[in-house]
Amino acid sequence: MQIVKVFNNNVVAIESNGQEHVVMGRGIAFQKRMGDVIDESRIEKVFTLESKESRERFIDFLNEMPQAEIETVKEIVKMAEPDSINRCMIRCT
Question: CA-CA distance, 27 to 10, in Å (whole number)?
C-alpha cells in the first residue's frame, strides 16, 4: 500500500489495487512521505468511497467549502479532543 497523500501522522490516503482509500492508525505516517509504503499492521480504520461519482462529489464538496468554515470545524474538533476537554474542565471549575 503506497502513500498518495499524508494528512498527518495518523491519517494518510493510500492506493491499493488501483483504488484510493483513507486509512487511520496511530503513527501510521510518522516520518513518511508520498510514495512510501505503510506498515499494514498499524492500520486501525479504512475509509473508502466506492464509486467514482462519490469521490468526485466529495472532492467538489471540499473545494466549494469556504476555508474559514474548514478552519472553524478544525477548531471545534480540536476542542472536543479529550486533552482539551480535561484542560477546559480544570480551567472552568
Answer: 5
- Beta-bridge partner residues of 15: 2, 20
Shortest CA distance to 5 belongs to which of 27, 25, 29?
29
Q: CA–CA separation, 40 vs 3, rounded Å?
A: 12
Chain segment 14-49, per-residue pLDDT in tens: 888 878 888 888 889 999 999 999 999 999 888 787
| Count of Cβ atoms closer than 10 Å to residue 3 Cβ | 19
Q: State pLDDT tens for residues 80-92.
A: 776 655 555 455 4
Give the helix/strand (H/E) hosting 15: strand 11-16
> If you search the block for the grid coordinates 476542542, which residue do you land on?
79
d(CA 39, CA 17): 16
Question: What pTM value is reported for the model?
Answer: 0.55
